[in-house]
Fold:
Amino acid sequence: MDALRRRPQPPGGDRPAATVAAAVGALLDLLQRPRHPFLGRDQLLDHAYIGEAADRLGGAVADPLSELDSGAALGGTGERRHSLANVGLHGPKLLLGRIEVEVVLFTHRMHDTLRALAGHAHTIALLPGDGVGPEVIGQARRVVDASGVEVRWEQLDWGSERYRREGALMPGDALERLRRHDAILLGAVGDPSLPDDLTLWGLLLPIRQQLDLWANLRPVRLLQGVPGPLAGRGPADVDMLFVRENTEGEYSGIGGRAHVGLPGETAIETSVFTRSALERLLRHAFELAQRRRGVLTSATKSNASRFGFVLWDEVAEEVASEFPGVGYERVLVDALASRMVGDPGSLDVVVASNLFGDILTDLGAALQGGMGMAASANLKPDGGAPGLFEPVHGSAPDIAGRGVANPCGAIWSAALMLADLGEAAAAERVMGALERVCLDGPRSRDIGGSASTAEVGDAVVRIVAAGAAD
Structure:
């Protein structure tokens, strides 16, 4: 599809490329972030007809932009590869001065592609965090820099060390600062000296909830060359995409404790399931399944959970009726865990609640070679907030500082980030380089090699840089 489509021009032929950039820049000025009455932060122009433009445009007409595909980063092959570019709804035509703009809303960040054409860099908040986080995220940053994508990094010292120093893992204006970025790349947060609930609720969960990053995508894919734990199963058998609800459910944070320290001490934890949150998550999962092998499995426990998961199942059935081409099944979560081990090839896209998705994807990480291989994207597919990308292995304090942590999950997360930013070619190069290194080496010790964190990073950087130079 065209992002900017040509309108009939007066005699004189096409305008030079410099005026194309000027036109794109002018459009971006008209739709300046963070808000526009018709376009949200992650929404975009599908095509614009530039008539007799303002004098500063010189009548520029932009060339078409092709649809972006992020299949390699998220797994899947051929025509069913998942694309983060989802077609949206036609919006109003706007007449802005002498520029007529026909708006089509999308859920993908192709707006950033326009920024790139106009010479704008992506701004990325870098949170190295704790433990092995700085080690692996440092390699991911090097890979992004080698990709040729123009990026401005802002490194933030948020984490456990900041808590010890200032009494909070992140500052009071943290969320507003993050909203000014195009993406967030996180290493890991957690330290043995601090309670786990303090570090989780002091940084990661507030970011997910208050930025409304409601979809957590976790590819579970065994790459060639990585030893898997299942006898007789290889890369062809382990290729799933998990879609985890990310802002409510069992991790809603609603509850409390009473009579602390007394024999009758009581703790109450409340799971929250709302129809609106379930509808958007399940619809997104069905859309992803459409782009892969066309099968969606819903993890449930409605036999024992009489309210939350009964609602989950009802909404899933309703949304399934909108996608007749997708095979839909609901499976009790305990049976699903068994099936992931016994018949992983039967699973394509799996949608799960916050808790179930958390547990199942850790099992999935084991199937794809270990926690060091696991990547994730925390997204708001309907737009309005930067995505947060992170390896899911945690801070691993037992190996921190030794230079042996596997950076593949962090690099894979960076590939997801590039795809979400509209940098499809760079994302493909990064994923291709990671696959090649996993196949040919060097590999870190957790996946059968002996290479250091930096040596793995060096190998990926070399391949990515060579591809970017072609």
Q: What stands out?
A: The first strand starts at residue 90 and ends at 96. The chain has a mean pLDDT of 82. The chain is about 35% helix and 20% strand.
